[in-house]
Design goal:
It contains 24 helices and 9 strands. By secondary structure, the protein is of the alpha/beta class. Helix 4 crosses helix 6 and helix 11 packs across helix 23.
Length: 431
């Protein structure tokens, strides 16, 4: 793609990076075939190629964002399926991140929308506060029809029973069983602590069972992904910096072989910390190191080459590959291979490259499109007649569970059960 950026604009490193990404695009349109929003609307501006044109026009002319570009950028799921498809290696993720930050800085949204986005960014990153929000949602759910479409969507996604806070999620060290093979820090997330703490509990049991010392580092918390995708760059960097500092302190004290992440949406962001802080003289080196040792939990389990007991219940497991894992991190083989090695009958979901509609806060901010994508995903899952659905991302688990009666579990819950851990509560509830 030809660009005509004034030289003065390119003195800004973010602008120079975006110009480089734009020039890589060859207008081929392969991305339109795998873009979920384009599949729904058929609007070129709801495809990556169309959004790239809008972003180019805005950046190249140094213009403020307007309602048109904001609408189409907001509709993007950040699923990154287009990057898997693109033959030219266009790094759409970094381009969109830059554009969204500009939208946040230059476009004044209607007051209710500003309030909603600010509330989501503030509440979801704070587990204790989010837990109180879930309690309120449970009380308000019977009156959902009285609220706006977005608020009704939020109420529908809240669990009927709010889990208690888990002891696993406070700063501490879990010793490895037997000889220690690895020492890792677990990112225990923010929303996950409130919505489904059983995931972190299963992760700790599973890793320690196979010789991994697990550290919950003091000072580590939200990865910053939520704020990042809302264009709130400063807030995102602040949260990321806290994690970098916390894990760097832990490295200095006892060393870390890996940063383990069991929510793939967070993993994509943590693995990008090196890029986020590339121009920061204080944290560039530390951020790059953290990014280099960050791994999805499935990658670490595969690295351990576990000899599974082979006692897994004979269940048909439909594995949903989260977009942030398969497109954002290019982790595609390990999860299904682990489930199969543990003894489960594992089924790949048709149209597995298409997003389920969760996408962080997307199902709250774009409920109509998210619901259409969930219906499509659930139909493909239920066509397999599985006993259970597995995924590696809390957002996907919550989204899919809202559209089916099938139990939807995290990968680690099934693997923990198959190797001696307790039967997942979601399965016990069905007995």
């Amino acid at each position: 793609m030809q660009t005509h950026f004034p030289p003065a604009l390119l003195e800004n490193p973010d602008m120079a990076q975006s110009e480089k990404i734009l020039r890589a695009c060859v207008h081929c349109g392969f991305c339109t075939a795998t873009c979920p929003t384009f599949l729904l609307t058929g609007d070129e501006l709801d495809s990556p190629r169309g959004r790239i044109y809008l972003i180019k026009e805005m950046l190249e002319n140094d213009r403020a964002a307007d309602a048109r570009i904001t609408r189409h950028l907001d509709r993007c799921l950040s699923c990154w399926g287009c990057m898997t498809t693109c033959p030219s290696g266009v790094h759409y993720m970094h381009l969109l991140d830059h554009a969204r930050a500009r939208v946040e800085r230059t476009y004044v949204r209607p007051l209710p929308e500003r309030g909603l986005r600010a509330t989501l960014a503030f509440v979801l990153a704070r587990p204790a506060l989010f837990r109180w929000g879930l309690r309120f949602s449970a009380l308000a759910r019977p009156f959902a029809r009285l609220f706006s479409e977005r608020l009704a969507a939020m109420l529908a996604l809240a669990p009927k029973k709010i889990p208690k806070a888990s002891e696993v999620d406070r700063p501490q060290i879990f010793s490895a069983q037997g000889a220690r093979r690895l020492r890792v820090a677990l990112l225990n997330g923010c929303a996950q602590q409130a919505l489904d703490p059983a995931i972190n509990e299963a992760t700790v049991r599973l890793l320690t069972r196979y010789g991994v010392e697990v550290v919950i580092a003091h000072g580590a918390g939200c990865c910053g992904a939520l704020e990042h995708h809302l264009g709130k760059t400063d807030a995102s960097r602040d949260l990321a910096a806290r994690n970098i500092d916390a894990w760097t302190r832990e490295i200095a004290k006892g060393g870390l072989d890996r940063i383990v992440i069991n929510t793939s949406g967070c993993g994509t962001t943590v693995k990008d910390y090196g890029f986020m802080f590339r121009n920061d003289p204080l944290r560039a080196e530390a951020a790059a190191h953290i990014a280099s040792i960050a791994r999805d939990v499935s990658e670490v389990l595969a690295e351990l080459a576990i000899a599974w007991p082979g006692a897994a219940p004979k269940l048909r497991v439909a594995y949903h590959s989260a977009c942030s894992l398969q497109h954002g991190q290019r982790v595609t083989q390990e999860p299904m291979a682990l489930l199969e090695a543990a003894g489960f009958e594992t089924l790949g979901v048709p149209e597995g490259h298409i997003c389920c509609g969760s996408a962080g806060t997307y199902n709250l901010l774009q409920p109509e499109m998210a619901a259409a994508l969930r219906s499509r995903k659930v139909a493909n899952i239920e066509a397999l007649a599985p006993d259970v659905v597995a995924a590696g991302n809390l957002g996907c688990i919550t989204q899919i569970a809202g559209g089916t009666d099938l139990p939807v579990l995290h990968l680690v819950e099934l693997l923990d059960w198959a190797s001696g851990g307790p039967k997942p509560a979601k399965l016990l509830a069905r007995e």
